[in-house]
Structures are given as structure tokens and as C-alpha cells.
């Protein structure tokens, strides 16, 4: 029973264009959502987050959108840069239990 | 990664051997977590500790034990290693989660 799903294992985008990474969840108890970026041989690093009381959060080139009714969130990267090439994980937190659940990741490749 | 230190970075074990993975943080965070990462499976929570003195099971706890030694340290123990436990193990704190660089564990 996968509570957080990233249905696209990989995505290729041209440099300068928009990258859109998607994530779906099933548990309505999740109240905080996060995106992480992971390079090979390193631990994931936090990128951006959103509380369930918001529908959008922006930080520079990164914007996260949350659609609670659809249980869907997305990460937009504009403009995409070759250094953005990495695996992106979405994660959901049930703050009542302190438990984070991660998706399976999407490998983004930004082509120069 | 600054703040969360995992040791060792690499380890090879034989089936049936035991081992403890160490994690220490200097961020004064209350919660600590252990994950494993396998190809196509993402990051799966093994155990976590919401605060010093408490531990709880995650998604895949079987075959593992943990100890929250103090606020800084959270160790993961494999009592009798099995090939299915070959993985990359990550320790993390909160919030948001800060991860160590991982321990790559191979069990032959």
C-alpha cells in the first residue's frame, strides 16, 4: 500500500524550459509536504515544502502546488538548469505521528 | 552533510553477521529517522524516534532494532544480516529532514 506515489520514474527537459514533477498521495492525515533533491552518493537535501493549509509555495525557481481535493502536488522548476539533474523525491508528513512517507522518486535530466 | 554524520560509509557483511550503524546529529533536533533506499523503491522508513527515549516502527522494521542513546545519537542494528538487507541506509533528523550521506551495506 503505497501512500505516496511518483508515477513518472524519469523526465527529460531542455535547459531553460519548465520541469514539472508530480506526486499523488492517499492519506488525508498528511498535513505537510516536502520535496527533496538527491545527487548520486549523497543524502537527499531539502528543496521546498508546503503546508496543507496552502495551495502554493514559491522559492526562487522552485514552486510547489498542492491540490488537496485531488490529493496531488507538483514541483515546478523554471527555468530548468543542467545542475538540476538529480532524483527528486516527494514526501508527506503526518505531524501527529512525526512519520514521513516518501515517494519512489523521479529522475530529472536537464539537457543542455 | 553538515549536521548529520553516519558511520561507517561502506560495509560488507556475511549472512548471519551482526552490525550496528551509527548516526549522530549536532542540530539539537528532537526527531531522528532511519531509512533504506533500494532501486525503484524510494526511501522507506525503518524506525524513527520522535524524541529522546521513544522509538517507533516505520514501514519496514523487520530484521532491525534501534537505540536512541541520547538526543544526539540514534543507532540501527542488524542482529543477523540477510542478503535482502543489502541497501543504502540513511539517517535523518527533522524539520525539514536533514540527511546524512548514507551507509552502503552489502550482505553476501
Strand tally of chain B is 11
Decide which structural class fits the backbone of chain B. Answer: mainly beta
Strand content of chain A: over 45%
SSE pattern of chain A: EEEEEEEEEEE
Order of helices and strands of chain B: EEEEEEEEEEE
Task: Characterize the structure shown.
The complex is a heterodimer of chains A (112) and B (108). Chain A is mostly beta strands and 112 residues long. In chain A, 0% of the residues lie in helices and 56% in strands. Chain A has no helices and eleven strands. In chain A, strand 7 (62-67) and strand 8 (72-77) form a beta hairpin. By secondary structure, chain B is an all-beta fold. In chain B, 0% of the residues lie in helices and 52% in strands. Chain B has no helices and eleven strands. In chain B, strands 2, 4, 5, 6, 9, 10 and 11 form a seven-stranded mixed β-sheet that branches. The model of chain B has no long low-confidence stretch (mean pLDDT 93). The interface between A and B is medium-sized, with 22 and 26 residues.
Question: How would the blueprint of this fold be written?
Answer:
The complex is a heterodimer of chains A (112) and B (108).
Chain A: E1 4-5, E2 10-14, E3 19-25, E4 32-38, E5 45-51, E6 56-59, E7 62-67, E8 72-77, E9 86-94, E10 99-102, E11 106-111
Parallel strand pairs in A: 2-11
Antiparallel strand pairs in A: 1-3, 3-8, 4-5, 4-9, 6-7, 7-8, 9-10, 9-11
Chain B: E1 4-7, E2 10-13, E3 19-25, E4 32-38, E5 42-49, E6 56-57, E7 64-68, E8 74-78, E9 87-93, E10 98-99, E11 103-107
Parallel strand pairs in B: 2-11
Antiparallel strand pairs in B: 1-3, 3-8, 4-5, 4-9, 5-6, 7-8, 9-10, 9-11
Amino acid at each position: 500500500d503505497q501512500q505516496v506515489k511518483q508515477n513518472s520514474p524519469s523526465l527529460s527537459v531542455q535547459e531553460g524550459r519548465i520541469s514539472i514533477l508530480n506526486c499523488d498521495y492517499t492519506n488525508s492525515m498528511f498535513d505537510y509536504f516536502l520535496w527533496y533533491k538527491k545527487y548520486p552518493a549523497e543524502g537527499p537535501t531539502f528543496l521546498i515544502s508546503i503546508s496543507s493549509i496552502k495551495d502554493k509555495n514559491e522559492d526562487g525557481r522552485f514552486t510547489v502546488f498542492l491540490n488537496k481535493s485531488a490529493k496531488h502536488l507538483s514541483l515546478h522548476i523554471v527555468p530548468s538548469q543542467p545542475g538540476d539533474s538529480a532524483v527528486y523525491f516527494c514526501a508527506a508528513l503526518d505531524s501527529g505521528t512525526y512519520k514521513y512517507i516518501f515517494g519512489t522518486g523521479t529522475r530529472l535530466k536537464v539537457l543542455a | 552533510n553538515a549536521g548529520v554524520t553516519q558511520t561507517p560509509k561502506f560495509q560488507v557483511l556475511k549472512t548471519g553477521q551482526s552490525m550496528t550503524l551509527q548516526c549522530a546529529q549536532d542540530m539539537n533536533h528532537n526527531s531522528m529517522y532511519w531509512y533504506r533506499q533500494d532501486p525503484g523503491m524510494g526511501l522507506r522508513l525503518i524506525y524513527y524516534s520522535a524524541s529522546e527515549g521513544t522509538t517507533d516502527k516505520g514501514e519496514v522494521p523487520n530484521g532491525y532494532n534501534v537505540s536512541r542513546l541520547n538526543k544526539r545519537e540514534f543507532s540501527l542494528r542488524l542482529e543477523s544480516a540477510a542478503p535482502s538487507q543489502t541497501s543504502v541506509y540513511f539517517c535523518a533528523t527533522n524539520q525539514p529532514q536533514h540527511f546524512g550521506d548514507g551507509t552502503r551495506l552489502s550482505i553476501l
